[in-house]
Amino acid sequence: MRVIIYTGKGGVGKTSVAAAAALRASELGYRTLVFSTDASHSLGDSFDKDLGHEPTEVAPKLWAIETNAYADLEANWGVVRTHIANIITLQGMNEVLADEAAILPGMDEIFSLARIKDYRDSGQYDCIIVDAASTGETLRLLSLPQTLSWTVKLLRKADKYILKPIVRPLSRLSPELEEMIAPEEVFEAIEKMLLKLKAIKKLLADSSQTSLRLVMNAEKMVIKESKRALTYFNMYGLLVDGVVVNRLLSTDSGYLESWREIQQRYLDEVKTGFSPLPVQTAPQYHSEVVGIANLSRLAKDLYGECDPTLISFNETVFEIRKQKGEYSLKMRLQLLDKEKLRIRSTANDLILQVENQRRIISLPSAMSGYRPSKATYENNYLTVYFNKRKKAEQ
Length: 394
Ligand SMILES: Nc1ncnc2c1ncn2[C@@H]1O[C@H](COP(=O)(O)OP(=O)(O)OP(=O)(O)O)[C@@H](O)[C@H]1O
Ligand SMILES: [Mg+2]
What we know:
The protein is an alpha/beta fold. It folds into two domains: 1-316, Rossmann fold (3-Layer(aba) Sandwich); 318-388, Sandwich (Immunoglobulin-like), CATH 2.60.40. The protein is 44% helix and 24% strand. The protein is built from eleven helices and 15 strands. The strands form three sheets. The chain has an eight-stranded mixed β-sheet, sandwiched between helices. α1 crosses α11 (292-303), α3 (69-90) crosses α4 and α3 packs across α8. It is globular. The two termini are 46 Å apart.
């Protein structure tokens, strides 16, 4: 069973690439489900078919879903939302606003994501391909389990230490206070949600089954966002096993020739910057990628005769740890001559340079204010240590 998540900056071709990979997987005989968690659904446009909240067969062995995040949210979180909204309304807030305030941003998608686990457990599919929201939203989604479980713990504590012993006896005197006490079903829904979140986290972090692929175009800002995303995915312990560069101009691009040259330079930057991740490429077509024939062409350009469901790389590209107030970043790096390595950092990036080859690694924002203090190189692994403000010694 495989779960492959395609993510990337807005508009780069995530939906098209996910649909193409799914089509190829189904042609190879895998029972494949392609699943869009993106609210602005375009998976149906890619297949040129109307899709719904439940799987629709779009080709032999291939099913597609456009999730209805709102329906998933109501089914899972409806009672909790009503309860929180009631409390907020009691404070005098307008009911519509209170309803909105009772949902954390990105929460709807997490419930949709939770369905992936149900489909995996159903045993009906060999491969699930996810057309995810843009990198920014996917990242927020990934940090949501932590935020949510923290909120839930707080709610439970409030119930145990404040509501039950203090508010409950008083609530007989005031109907308003009575409404503040969560009914049992709210806690049941929260418990269920916590279990689901744990299961999703486990599924996403299981690199023998799940991997992410970053889709991008050969453009400066797109590459920059993807690098940042790679850093965060690595921090969350998720496996990124490939990069897709979409919409590359071909050699006969006429008046766009200079644009093509710029793209080639950025493509080289992607190859070194994301090394050792494999890089797949697809050309800019003359028309949109709509319908089975076009998707099939895209799949062929991306994967040729290869199987897109295989995990093409299974190591974390780098690992960031924090110990005793000091950060360390460990990565595999083949160096022929370690004396030639220069390490620099800016507020946001770590820059590794060997002669004219540069590798830029985006650092998480928690590390701003930290500077490289020491580096070691052993058995092809480079470890850079960071501490506050100290300048590099090398
Ligand atoms: N290689 C390509 N050549 C030509 N058109 C393409 C190519 N890849 C994608 N497109 C077209 O570009 C548009 C955007 O692609 P797509 O919907 O796959 O991007 P996306 O990253 O999913 O966007 P969003 O962030 O809005 O979800 C679509 O109309 C698609 O058909
Ligand atoms: Mg899309």
